[in-house]
Amino acid sequence: MYKITITKNENPLLNEVIIFNKELNFTSSIFPNLGASLQKLDYNGIEIIDGISANDDGLKTYKNKYNSAILFPFPNRISDGKFEFNNTNYNLEINEPALNNRLHGFVFNKSFVVKEKSTSKENAKIVFNYKYKGSTEGFPFPYNLELTYTFTKNKVSLNFGVLNEGTTAFPFGIGWHPYFKVPNLKDSTLAFEAKTQYLVNKKMIPTEETRLKFKTPILIRDTFLDDCFITEKSTTSLKTDSYTIDINFSSKKPTSFLQVYTPESRDCIAIEPMTCAPNSFNNKSGLLILEANEKYNWKVDLEYYF
């Protein structure tokens, strides 16, 4: 039987929604005040998600790594924080000063409310909601973002529902930024279907497409990755010594986008499904437009095996 508890911390940023199943020896944790980010996924003693600890050190880690952050209304970077839409220029607040970019959207540090939760023997479901009134000059477009986490045996589904609550259209993209804990990264294998990836400039902004630099599946070994791939199929998998994961991220377009990053620590890997490319507000690659009063849905399924 799945159960859900809500725990409060002295620092409310570290409040947790905890999902557990004693029979499965399963525990998961979501931080609603850190963008409803998934910070723990532990099955039978095996840690899959590389999340943060519920303390000040954890907050510092999240600020630097964006562990499992929800990326909206765009993933990755907007060059110089500037874009033009419908003949109007907009300036976003810079949060990556070293490269002078806006990074990972606006909701990664926002507080979501728990709208609904339910449990049964087969699953647990939690619905989180965040409303934005369009109060920021750089993005004056009201929206309602709803996230639904559904936990079943060996699977987590994350559903995104975006409603345009304004009177005009706005540009957007969605992404998810999970890190996976991999103590033996060099002997792990990453698989996905792609023929091209982006070349980037010194600001990590795509400049052009190029042929894939390696064949897939790739045995990671000492390979350093910080690349965006234009995938032909919205799926990817990672095989480690401890577990295998499959990620299926639905896309209404013939191509989708996958960012992969291997930190210098070599003890985890970020595998980030995205609906659009970095700097999509400017290069338009994968960019979506949401008309007034319209809703868009996107789904990511994470399955894990041992």
Automatic annotation (TrEMBL):
Subunit structure: Monomer.
Keyword RNA-binding: no
Domain of life: Bacteria
Cofactor(s) named in the record: Ca(2+)
Alphabetical UniProt keywords: Calcium
GO biological process per UniProt: galactose catabolic process via UDP-galactose, Leloir pathway; glucose metabolic process
GO molecular function: aldose 1-epimerase activity; carbohydrate binding
Source species: Gramella jeungdoensis
Gene3D superfamilies: 2.70.98.10
InterPro entries in alphabetical order: Aldose_1/G6P_1-epimerase (IPR008183), Gal_mutarotase_sf_dom (IPR011013), GH-type_carb-bd (IPR014718)
Descriptive protein name: Aldose 1-epimerase
Keyword Calcium tagged: yes
